[in-house]
Amino acid sequence: MSREVYIIDGARTPFLKARGVPGKFSAAELAIKAAQPLLLRQPFSATQFDEVILGCVMPAANEANIARVVSLRLDCGDAVPAWTVQRNCGSGMQALDTAAQRIASGASDLILAGGVEAMSRAPLLFSDPMVHWFSRLNLAKTPMQKIAVLSKFRPAFFKPVISLLVGLTDPVVGLSMGKTAEILAQRFNISRESMDEFAVRSHLRLAQAQQSNSLSEVEVIYDQNGRAYEHDDGVRPDSSVAALSKLNAVFDRPHGKVTAGNSAQVSDGAACLILASAEACEKYKLHPQGKIVDCCWQGLSPSQMGLGPAYAIAELLKRQALNLKDIDQWEINEAFAAQVQACLAALQDEEFCQQELAWSSSVGVIDEARLNVDGGGVSLGHPVGASGARIVLHLLKTLQANKRKTGIASLCIGGGQGGAMLVENCDV
Amino acid sequence: MSETKFEGLLQLPNLILEQDGDNLVWLRFDQQDSSTNVLSKAMFSDLNAALDKLEEIKPAGLVITSNKKSGFIAGANIEEFTQVENSEQIIALIERGQSTFNRIESLPFPSIALIHGFCLGGGYELALACDYRLVNADEGARLGLPEVLLGIHPGFGGSARLIRLLGVLQAMPLMLAGRTLDAYSAKRIGMIDELLPARNLTQAIATYLKKKKAKRSKKLLFSFLELPFMRSLIAKRICKETAKKIRKEHYPAPYALIDLWQKNGGSFTDMMVGEGPSIAALFEHPTAQNLVKVFFMQQQLKKLGTNKKELGKKELRPTHVHVIGAGVMGGDIAAWCALRGMTVTLQDREAKFIEPALKRAAALFEKRVKDKVKRQAILDHLIPDIQGSGVERADVVIEAIVENLEAKVALFKALEPRLKPGAILASNTSSIPLESMASMLREPGRLLGIHFFNPVAKMQLVEVITCEQTEPQWFDKGLEFVTSINRLPLPVKSSPGFLVNRVLLPYLIEAVELLDEGVAAERIDAAMLEFGMPMGPVTLADTVGLDICFSVANILSASFELSVPELLRKKVEQGDLGLKTGKGFYVYKKGKAVKSKNISSFGPGKDEITERLLLRLLNECVACLREGIVENAEQLNAGMIFGTGFAPFRAGPMSYIQDQGVAEILNKFTRYQEEVGDRFIPDAGWQALLEAQKSEKNRS
Fold first, then answer.
1. pLDDT tens string A335-371
2. How big is the A-B interface in CB pairs under 8 Å?
3. Which residues contact A143 (CB under 8 A, 6 or more apart)?
4. For labeling, which of A289, B105, B366, B679 is most exposed (least CB within 10 Å)?
5. Which residues of A touch B360 (CB under 8 A)?
6. Which residues of B are catalytic?
7. Does B362 touch chain A (CB under 8 A)?
8. Which residues form the Thiolase C-terminal domain (chain A) (predicted)?
9. Which of A51, A26, A352 is nearest to A184 (CA)?
10. Chain A partners of B323 at a C-beta cutoff of 8 Å?
């Protein structure tokens, strides 16, 4: 049994740049604040969801199965099951894919799905020596034993482990995500200048979108002091290649090309969508805005993880018997400028396409005028668990705005994977 | 599941006594024909019968609890106290209570009070007589000795026992302010022994009963504090603190309690014996009588919103409130409703208008809800809603936008077709006649005025306003809603200013007239504070905002004979709007009025100031009553007490008129009409009052 899967509506929080201190919102709060306005405008009540599925990579210690926490706090009620999915940077898209499959199979009719991340709240951890010292102290029974353990303490134990950095380092190949981008820049010969140009364009496009109010899916959120956050706050409308060129490489120091300016920002944010079957649309008189047609996941070497979209897009096109020119709009998540540019280069490289993707020729050229038209991770941030849901939602919004039918949203995934989702606008 | 088997020992009208397999006796209060337990004559007689039985059979232990959902025991039967004729009878009532509770305390086996819900006054005094107090955390509780609020103090040994338990420094402030605490706070300071989930109760009872009788020896520190010189030192200090809040001539009970302790605090028995005569003396003071009246007024208003059985059904109760306009009133109404457990959507045009409301709400929740999980739930349910999506979902839609007829009508017209069937539609207007808005709607009978007072979290009164067109079903729903958010609904007919603002305005204007004559603001305020108002009229005007006073004055002057003083106009034109601009009739620094040290004594004397202000207020009250703005004098009294804080110990303006004598007050009108002017012409309604009082005198 395979049924159509409709996107009914969606909303997201502004993406808030991490500024060196824990952000004002917990991950659960972000998801709740994205979903509340979305739910308020529906003709059905939150208790009528069949399930809630959220993607999240690093929920806080008090947010185990964060989807359930969010579901209960949204008043979906005790009876609505909720679960959390994790495919690293692909978690938000994974939640949509899983929800879509649950609907297609007939298991569910109405699902709240999305992704969330509060990266600014990633904890500092005690170092291994510190943890061992604590346990020994705990086990020491006599006062003499305790004194002996106490005397072993070294100030260096205090050096914390920054879990965010650990999370952004591949544990199998031992490379940070930034280094994998450096590898791609080298392989596809992407210059520092072109990366910076790409980054500037991302900022200018987002600034333009904010000015023309074309980010209608962004909802105002308020912190506990009542302060409102209305826009993605990482945008730099005054960004320029000259300014970006002054930044130092942060991953391959000091000679590399990937800088903080041409990488995605570390941010907090959430995006939620409502997915429904045709039956649910009829039952609640819902107007479907879009359709999730297919979703494809591919694996590749972790050291080249940024190329994931090239693999996933090629596979998706093949499976759906589509050509690049059949796709009207594109969203490829900007983890790194170099990484998106590498994907574009790879898809038009005949040798790469033949050897790596098993295509007879090159896949083709993606028109950059139709790619990330309102900015991307470099300008608005990449809260890892949320981005996959954000790009699908925004893809649908751009299809609607341009009165186009078909689009693909794709992202690279730490650990060496790529995901791509094919979306159709129902209003065309 | 194993179930404890009980064997009945006694079945009395107001309680059940039964024994379980472990030789424990359970005494369950269950007052007949009532949803709450109160300590009435009948209750005491049943309790004593039960104690006879207990003393005879000597079980291993006693558990005292209640079968009522509402709680343990809500207090003494206040009506019985109002029916006594002399102080001997009062002392007899008190001795009956004390001796009964002493019997509980001296039972030869341990006793446990197993508490849930209301455990107040005599109810908590009974619990204090038990060896241990356990609270069922699943249901929560409210505990304390609030007798002072009725003009008396604890009398069933409560003052002696609470001081023995907590020490004077902890116990006295609680009793002096009549503060009641939730179970969590009560546990923290030791008013109860344990707060535990229902599933642990059986085990906990077994554990406590093994402990045998509680040791009732005092902590050494407490005994030290009760040495004569310490007592007089502490009493003096507490008196000083109390005097900062209330005056002895207005509220003698707290002072009597301090006095009682200063004289007898050295001995538990003396303290107990002293309670009776002290309370008897308090009952002779009009304050106690009046505060009891106020208590009944409050009960009456509550009843207005709860006696409609079919509306009382839980599933029909409102759960979602949509507030439009996030200004001071709208924002605070939204916060209050959220605090009372509603889902609230708060709409305004832009985020920046909602921000201050959420900030105030967060501060309110922080103060009122200590439990973090509960506070989070409340915050989750106060949802900013710029798009106004909440309208379709709301059970109550309250408008609190700018006071402009066209804007309001346009809003209501847009709202009406979007409302859920059965949803209440209400305006929080303070000045626009309801009928002028209602008549523009498709269903004019639906619109209500639900008028809150500032600050919403403090002012208990809410005027529920109806006009000719209003359909009774919507009126009933409005009363029910106001009661459900723990406010007191006062039915008021639509007329400019409704009740509270209309009555207050001439009073405020008279204050401005006095200022204009050159009387110092400090003297005006002092006169009314001495009368018993919670705030002087000049400070009140500054706090409300002179622009708001001015606009209400203009609206009222169009309908009533009322001249708006030039001074008020000038202040508003100069932009000196009061507290909010830092300058009004006073100058404010950091939110506090700067009062001058050498106050000019220019102008009329204190009594004259008081009389002029008061006569204007009373005159408007009488006019409102004559016009039927409120149904009767009791409701008018309640409105003024709970809506403006009108000296509660005087039981409201109409009671004050009765106490002073109608004829005497009319004489004063004559005098001021001659000396000051025609604004002191008594309303036509005084004549009826005069005749009523005369005929009452003749009858008696």
1. 999 999 999 999 999 999 999 999 999 999 999 999 9
2. 52
3. none
4. B366
5. 226
6. 451
7. yes
8. 287-424
9. A352
10. none
